[in-house]
């Protein structure tokens, strides 16, 4: 059984789980039946996890969104879609492996699916650049979306990135132009686009594949103009204030839903998506089916009008006049 990774605020659960594993080991070596004690401790661990997760701070949610065992884009593609055929390259410079995508079927419907992919181990993380895309990654994504438009296929995107790669080589090849071009083109794409924030939705790196008709967000994912550490470094000159920045940024699913920036929050299993990937895949498949039904029958003109109105509706403010 693979060892679970627990976050700092989950230590009480980690201690209980360690005790449960210890008892299971003892049971295999002993003639004494301690199944009842194990069941009681398991229920206690489940309840403790529920209690902890019922009152999370934005900074704690950020940590969950970055959990190394959390399902990534390919996990959802393999679990939700069928007949997936990966497509490579941007036809300009290279194949950026931080973005994966290709043709697939969703409930029998042909579609295009793409998203950011982080790595599980050091080798894969380096290969996929920790999910931080370079210009060629965004240009590959745009090529795939344009192909979908050509064949009138819906587009499903999955967002999971700390942000676009900020290196010199990326800037030299036009990082900001590539992101801006994607936003511009997605706003005019004549096929339905459904986006899901599955982990981190960081800055322009996330926005470059998330201009959509329906935006879903997993319960313990985050979506922000900048990472809490980046915000803290700018405002307070130290990343140690990241927890304060996370509170101020309003990066959690419920906050963004209240602001009208996301359409639906997809609940996660107790303890987060990484505790039960199969159940999370099932939850998300159902939510994507609901989102697809809302846009499936819209004509291109209706889609574009709705998308334009949606983009213009972002943000809430109150217009007040100073009293005399």
What does this structure look like?
- With 324 residues, the protein is of the alpha/beta class.
- It has 2 domains: 8-55; 62-313, 2-enoyl-CoA Hydratase, Chain A, domain 1, CATH 3.90.226.10.
- It contains 14 helices and 8 strands.
- The chain has helices at 11-29, 35-53, 58-65, 73-80, 122-127, 135-150, 168-172, 175-188, 203-207, 228-235, 242-249, 253-258, 277-295, 300-313; strands at residues 82-86, 99-106, 109-116, 155-161, 193-202, 214-218, 222-224, 264-266.
- Strands 1, 2, 3, 4, 5, 6, 7 and 8 form an 8-stranded mixed β-sheet that branches.
- A hairpin with a 2-residue loop joins strand 2 and strand 3.
- Helix 4 (73-80) crosses helix 13.
- The radius of gyration is 21 Å and the shape is globular.
- The protein starts with 10 loop residues before the first helix and ends in an 11-residue tail after the last helix.
- How many domain units? 2
Under CATH, the homologous superfamily of the largest domain reads 2-enoyl-CoA Hydratase, Chain A, domain 1
The CATH architecture of the largest domain comes to Alpha-Beta Complex
Compute the CA-based radius of gyration.
21 Å
Task: Describe the sheet with the most strands.
Answer: 8 strands, mixed
How much helix is in the residues? 40-55%
| Low-pLDDT ranges | none
CATH fold-level assignment of the largest domain: 2-enoyl-CoA Hydratase, Chain A, domain 1
Please tally the helical runs, counting DSSP H or I stretches of 4 or more residues: 14
Estimate the global geometry from the Cα principal axes. Answer: globular
């Amino acid at each position: 059984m693979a060892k679970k990774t627990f976050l700092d605020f989950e230590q009480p659960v980690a201690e209980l789980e360690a005790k449960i594993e210890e008892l299971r080991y003892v049971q295999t070596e002993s003639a004494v039946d301690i199944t009842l004690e194990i069941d009681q401790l398991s229920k206690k661990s489940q309840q403790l996890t529920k209690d902890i997760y019922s009152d999370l701070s934005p900074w704690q949610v950020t940590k969950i969104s970055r959990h190394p065992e959390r399902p990534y884009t390919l996990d959802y593609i393999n679990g939700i879609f069928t007949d997936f055929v990966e497509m490579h390259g941007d036809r300009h410079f290279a194949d950026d492996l931080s973005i994966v995508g290709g043709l697939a079927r969703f409930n029998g419907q042909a579609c295009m699916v793409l998203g950011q992919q982080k790595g599980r181990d050091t080798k894969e993380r380096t290969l996929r650049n920790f999910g931080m895309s370079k210009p060629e990654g965004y240009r590959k994504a745009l090529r795939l979306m344009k192909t979908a438009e050509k064949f009138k296929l819906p587009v499903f995107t999955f967002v999971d990135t700390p942000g676009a790669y900020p290196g010199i080589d990326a800037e030299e090849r036009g990082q900001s132009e590539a992101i801006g071009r994607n936003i511009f083109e997605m706003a005019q794409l004549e096929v339905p686009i459904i986006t899901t924030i599955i982990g981190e939705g960081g800055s322009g790196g996330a926005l470059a594949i998330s201009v959509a008709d329906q935006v879903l967000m997993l319960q313990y994912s985050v979506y922000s103009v900048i990472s809490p550490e980046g915000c803290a470094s700018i405002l307070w000159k130290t990343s140690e204030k990241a927890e304060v920045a996370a509170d101020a940024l309003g990066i959690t699913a419920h906050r963004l839903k209240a602001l009208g920036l996301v359409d639906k929050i997809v609940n996660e299993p107790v303890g987060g998506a990484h505790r039960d990937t199969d159940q999370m895949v099932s939850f998300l498949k159902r939510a994507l089916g609901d989102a697809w039904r809302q846009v499936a029958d819209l004509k291109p003109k209706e889609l574009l009008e709705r998308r334009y109105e949606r983009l213009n509706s972002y943000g809430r403010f109150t217009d007040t006049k100073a009293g005399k």
